[in-house]
Structures are given as structure tokens and as C-alpha cells.
Amino acid sequence: MTMLIVTHEMAFARAVADRILFMDRGIIAEQNDPETFFSAPQTARAQQFLERFSYVENMPKRKAS
């Protein structure tokens, strides 16, 4: 089953997502698995965005299914 969720709740996204798509000005700027996205974002814009959410590092990561 596929579900698309749009959120600014980064801890929630990290906990439940299989893939993260980061959009900047309506364009997909980056897509990756949650662990890679949150630990090593590939774009400067994603890095800047995630700096606002330093608490996400301490939040639960997705459990293996």
C-alpha cells in the first residue's frame, strides 16, 4: 500500500517513512531513505531546513519491518 503524507513534523516523518521527498519551491530537491536524509542530506537547502530540527536526532528511528 502506498500513502503520501505531507508534514513538517520531522520526528514523525523519520519514524514512519520508507522514503523522504524534500521539496523546495514546489520542486523535489532531494529524495532518500529517512536515515540517509536525516544523517547526511544531499542538498544545501535540506541541510539548512534540518538545522532547525536538531531534536530529530534524538527521536526514534523507523523500526525494521
TrEMBL record:
UniProt subcellular location: Cell inner membrane
Gene3D superfamilies: P-loop containing nucleotide triphosphate hydrolases
Source organism of this protein record: Pseudomonas syringae pv. maculicola
A Gene Ontology term for the protein's cellular component: plasma membrane
Molecular function GO terms recorded: ATP binding
PANTHER family, per database record: AMINO ACID IMPORT ATP-BINDING PROTEIN, GLUTAMATE_ASPARTATE IMPORT ATP-BINDING PROTEIN GLTL
Name of this protein: Glutamine/glutamate ABC transporter, ATP-binding protein
Entry keywords, A to Z: ATP-binding, Cell inner membrane, Cell membrane, Membrane, Nucleotide-binding, Transport
Principal localisation: membrane
Family, per entry: Belongs to the ABC transporter superfamily.
Membrane topology label: Peripheral membrane protein
